[in-house]
Amino acid sequence: MKEKAEAEGTHLTVEEARQALASISRADMIRLRKAEIWWSRDNDNSMLLVDAITKTWDGVRSWKRGMTPFTHLYGVMKSLASNDYKKTKKNKTDSITDDAGNEKPKISAQISTPSPETLMIEREQKQKREKEAKELADQVLELFADDDNAMWVLMGEMDGQSAEEIRELSGMDQTQYNSTRRRIRRKLDRYFPDKKKT
Predict the structure, then answer these.
(1) Which of 7, 44, 60, 172 could form a disulfide with 176 if both were Cys (CB 3.0 to 4.6 A apart)?
(2) CA-closest candidate to residue 28, choices 158, 145, 183, 174
């Protein structure tokens, strides 16, 4: 009973969470949809946002007090996407190996090309680059999760939007946009000093 009382002290009750969900702003929904596209870019049928809202509504995912709707749902989506990625990776591994962990002959025949070693090296390097890029992007988004304007800029740039499009969607004027870009650069330089851009 004490644990439940403590949990209710640090987290919203289900009813409070439902009220917070019901009052979420249109701007936050647009940002969350962008985050959903980012987290589920390998899965066109993803319903991360719907799942995050449903699990919160049903009380399956607890909501820490003080967290904004965007920050809470963003974190839930990230967690769900991570779980989906792990499952997909395991299924892919299971589908190309037998019970002993050896590559299945059919798959071996399919990937046999004039230079299989080169293809394997290239694939491994590509996967490594993609993984590193995703990890870096995740760290950067996590760093700015509580900075609305920074999230607009970062997610807009990740989606390939122009500065004008970002300003229009976010409602920022040129001065706010420039100030946000400088704030992002300073924070990134502080947290990632080895990745400074010239």
Answers:
(1) 172
(2) 145
Give exposure, 74-106, as e/b (b: 16+ Cβ within 10 Å): bbbbbebbeebeeeeeeeeeeeeeeeeeeeeee
Contact 144, 190 (CB under 8 A): no
CA 123 to each of CA 120, 134, 136: distance values in angstroms, whole numbers, following the listed order: 5, 16, 20
Output the pLDDT for position 130.
Answer: 80
Question: For residues 185 and 84, what is the distance between their CA atoms, to the nearest angstrom?
Answer: 32
β strands within 20-144, DSSP E: none
Whole-prediction pTM: 0.48
State CA 136 to chain mean position distance: 11
Beta carbons of 149 and 176 less than 8 angstroms apart: yes
Whole-number Å distance between alpha carbons of 76 and 20: 15
DSSP 121-138: HHHHHHHHHHHHHHHHHH
Task: Tally Cβ neighbours within 10 Å of residue 198.
Answer: 2
